[in-house]
Specification:
mainly alpha, Rossmann fold, Arc Repressor Mutant, subunit A, five-stranded parallel beta sheet, three-stranded antiparallel beta sheet, transferase
Length: 859
């Protein structure tokens, strides 16, 4: 039997349905976490009194087998809490929630129905992280409720459908870490999958089990006689209560069976004489109900029970009946276990037990119809972009190859929409023997894993794709091979390496620009720009992004487009085109924001680079917000050039705020990432920052660190990249300055001169500026003041023109004093605008640094 997806709730003693927002970390959002309880139900006052006595616990667990009315009790408790002005949300579990990412998606939708601003925050966390999404979203939920002093009652209905450990861990996290602002109500057929140990002892658990849920004789009489209007004697009611076990669903089936019975006593006697299990009694009652229906209506019911939810369009596709909406409303009106499940009232769901009965009848009477019905449903779901349901229906129909086709055909759009988790989740549903031999699908999965920084996933998908590439038609094989080669080279770029055949891979894509997907060509341009940056050909890096412009226009998603803007900004900044860099970054952020205005993952990466640029110009407030956002990404923080900003510049900013512990933490965490991912360039930059911070403070430099830095010989610098070697050289120069001896200062000056000679000003203007400032600092520290001024003067003009105040401040008070002395020399004494600009710049920089120092010292 097909697994029953969905959840039920018993209303007026019978079960009705609720469905969670279907699908997807997110293809389409047609449903809402919606609980519109229109019919008055029979109050379970005894249970409500039990729940309302004493403080609200962290967890209310309502557990019993199917048909006991668990969801009705949860619904009534929600009503009670709503009257007490408590915000409530309802999350109905379905099988997709066994993917933790989709569970989070459904959770966010449930929260949105009652706390939209908090849901925006959760969505930001969801979109803004590639790994550890669960931790970020759940922490944001608990923190948001606590900081706003907002109580939320969250119902999680049909928890027994979950068997995934990650989803179980998510709920356990909420239970164990939540405070009194989160009140969880869980309905389930079992007690499993929940961290119950210790909760009861702490007074944080209230359990409602089947002994409390079953209807007693008085409640059965109230339902059957008072609510249903059946003419039954007290003895009849007692017999029904005993034979049904007081289960709400069975009592409702009995009431439907008795409604048109001329002799109710005969049916009651038949039930009373049975010694079958509850399921057999339910089957007997359901058969009575179904047998009493008109044939056309029964056929409609059986045809529409194969999906977990139904609307008029889907029902028409399944039945060819164009009066489907009218029939659905008639079924609802006749209390045949059908319930509206969305705010607009256009989607319905059968009670899960009743859906089982209908499917049993269909399997018994017309089993050959089922595959065709499922294929029709799948086609309708595909046409309406509800891919998860489509895949489920195709697999149930035995059409595994068609299910693979459906995912494969949607993969490109999912990439453009940056829905990598969704693609991987959909692929996980597919039988491995069919999915693993589809090179096109495996290539798309490799792309998804690249975006999620999952190297192992990339390599496995590439292996499978390469194994099966010969199965691709010859007219498509060239494109696919070019794509696979590009993937290999891009993976190397994320590992901060230039693949030996990167240029060949890029050119192969350029040669196929007429047939490759636009976003792949954007990725090819990004790789080419990355390679150009590594050889300091910044014009070429920008040229590639200009080449990609037409393909950006044809790409609907922001990921590859904004990455292109990031790479262009890095190139522009290295050329000292600061305005151009800022324009690229602000455009990249703008197109990557969520509708709420909050940043996505790629927007945070661009924000890190923008934060660095703003920091260097002294705009610390905006810079701090951007760098803090990027810092939350941790190891997911993009290519090394972006992590330079997040961890290196981020540490400088925290130090500028007087928060040395935060600066130290950033450097330490960045170094951990560099070690784990084997990123020597990042390690070298952050060691330099650690040495620089120590040199500028009164702290002693760790002797072990100093020894390791100074022990890196020329041989050790070979083979790890010239930029890495430069950074290590900078660290050694800083340590020599810290030493302060005559020989150390002489060595520092000589090495700084050599560094400046090796940096081509025309090719690397930004690096030349940095090397110039370093040499000026060395000369000034060594007492060679006149030469220091001559060296600094042109750099001072550049810094003044671009507003680079922090470049002077971050070199320490020695350089700032030298800048003041230099600005007062004859070279800058004239009244021309350029000289006046330098004098004003140095004066304002010194004044702002003094003010900031005083502010920090008083904190």
């Amino acid at each position: 039997m097909a697994a029953v997806l969905g959840s039920y709730l018993t209303i007026i003693g019978f079960t009705l349905a609720i469905l969670s927002p279907v699908l997807i970390a997110a293809l389409i959002s047609g449903f809402h976490a919606y609980t519109d309880w229109r019919r008055a139900d029979l109050p379970r006052q005894g249970i409500l009194d039990r729940l309302g006595s004493g403080p609200r616990p962290k967890l209310v667990l309502i557990h019993a087998p199917g048909g006991y009315g668990k969801s009705t009790v949860a619904k009534q408790w929600v009503k009670t809490l709503t009257k007490q002005k408590v915000k409530t949300a309802w999350l109905a579990i379905d099988s997709d929630d066994n993917n933790a990412v989709w569970f989070l998606t459904h959770l966010i939708k449930a929260v949105r129905a009652t706390l939209p601003e908090l849901a925006d925050t959760l969505q930001q966390e969801f979109e803004g992280h590639l790994e550890n999404v669960q931790q970020h979203v759940l922490y944001a939920l608990l923190h948001g409720l606590h900081s706003d002093k907002q109580t939320l009652a969250l119902v999680i209905d049909d928890w027994h459908l979950v068997d995934n450990s990650e989803t179980m861990n998510a709920l356990a996290y909420l239970i164990e870490n939540g405070c009194h602002h989160l009140h969880l109500v869980v309905t389930s057929r079992t007690r499993s999958g929940l961290p119950l140990d210790g909760l009861a002892a702490q007074g944080e658990l209230t359990e409602i089990d089947e002994s409390l849920l079953k209807f007693d004789i008085d409640e059965s009489r109230a339902l059957l006689v008072k609510r249903r209007g059946l003419k039954l004697t007290p003895a009849n009611v007692a017999e029904l209560e005993e034979s049904t076990g007081g289960r709400a669903a069975a009592l409702q089936l009995a009431s439907l069976s008795l409604r048109d019975q001329a002799d109710p006593a005969a049916l009651i006697e038949n039930l009373s004489g049975r010694h079958d299990a509850h399921e057999a009694i339910d089957d007997y009652l359901a058969s009575n109900v179904l047998n009493s229906l008109e044939p056309d209506l029964l056929d409609f019911l059986m045809s529409t029970c194969v999906t977990n939810q139904i609307c008029s369009g889907l029902a028409t596709a399944l039945t060819n009946n164009h009066n489907s909406q009218g029939l659905l409303e008639e079924i609802e009106k006749r209390n045949l276990f059908l319930r509206r499940i969305d705010a607009k009232g256009s989607w319905f769901q059968y009670h899960d037990l009743f859906a089982e009965y209908l499917l049993h009848r269909l399997e018994r009477d017309a089993v050959d119809r089922i595959p065709g019905l499922r294929r029709r449903a799948a086609q309708w779901f595909i046409e309406h972009q509800m891919l998860s349901q489509a895949v489920d229906q195709l697999l149930l129909a035995g059409d595994a190859r068609q299910a693979v086709d459906a995912v494969e055909q949607a993969a490109g759009d999912l990439h453009e929409q940056n829905k990598m988790h969704t693609l991987i989740g959909l692929a996980a549903k597919l039988p491995a023997q069919y999915a693993e031999v589809r090179p096109r699908l495996q290539a798309d999965l490799a792309w998804a894993n690249v975006a999620l920084s999952r190297s192992a996933g990339v390599l496995e998908a590439l292996r499978l794709a390469e194994n099966a590439v010969d199965s691709v038609p010859s007219d498509q094989a060239g494109d696919l091979r070019a794509e696979l080669d590009l993937l290999v080279a891009i993976l190397a770029a994320f590992q901060d390496r230039v693949h030996p055949f990167a240029d060949v891979a890029v050119q192969a894509c350029v040669d196929r620009a007429d047939t490759l997907r636009p976003w792949i060509l954007c990725r090819a341009a990004d790789l080419a720009s990355f390679c150009a940056l590594r050889v300091w050909d910044f014009d070429d890096a920008l040229r590639w992004q200009k080449w990609a412009g037409p393909f950006h226009q044809k790409t609907s998603g922001a990921l590859s487009v904004t990455y292109g803007h990031c790479l262009a900004a890095i190139a522009a900044n290295e050329r000292l085109d600061v305005a151009g860099a800022e324009a690229h970054l602000r455009q990249g952020i703008r197109i990557a924001l969520l509708p709420s205005g909050r940043p996505t993952y790629i927007a945070k990466l661009a924000g890190s680079l923008l934060g660095q640029l703003l920091y260097e110009r002294g705009q610390l407030d905006e810079a701090e917000a951007l760098l803090d956002d990027a810092y939350e990404l941790g190891a997911e923080g993009g290519i090394v050039d972006i992590m330079f900003a997040t961890f290196g510049t981020g540490a400088r900013l925290k130090m500028a705020r007087g928060d040395k512990p935060a600066a130290d933490r950033r450097i330490a965490e960045g170094l951990e990432i560099a070690a784990a991912a084997r990123l020597p360039r990042l390690e070298a930059r952050l060691i330099y920052e650690r040495v620089r911070l120590a040199a500028m403070s009164t702290d002693e430099i760790d002797e072990g660190l100093a020894a390791r830095v100074m022990g890196q010989s020329a041989q050790a610098l070979d083979g790890i990249g010239y930029e890495t070697a430069e950074l290590r050289e900078d660290s050694q120069v800083r340590l020599l300055l810290r030493d302060g001896s005559h020989s150390a200062l002489s060595a520092a000056c000589e090495r700084a001169r050599a560094q400046l000679r090796h940096v081509d000003q025309g090719k690397r203007p930004r690096a030349h500026l940095g090397a110039t400032l370093q040499l000026a600092l060395c000369l000034s520290t060594a007492g060679e003041t006149d030469e220091a001024r001559r060296v600094l003067a042109p750099a001072l003009r550049t810094c003044a023109a671009l507003g680079f105040s922090r470049l002077l401040i971050d070199e320490g008070p020695q350089l700032l004093r030298l800048a003041q002395d230099t600005a007062a020399t004859e070279e800058f004494s004239s009244s021309d605008p350029a000289s006046q600009c330098v004098r004003d710049f140095v004066s304002s920089t010194a004044a702002s640094n003094m003010a900031a120092s005083l502010k920090v010292s008083t904190v």
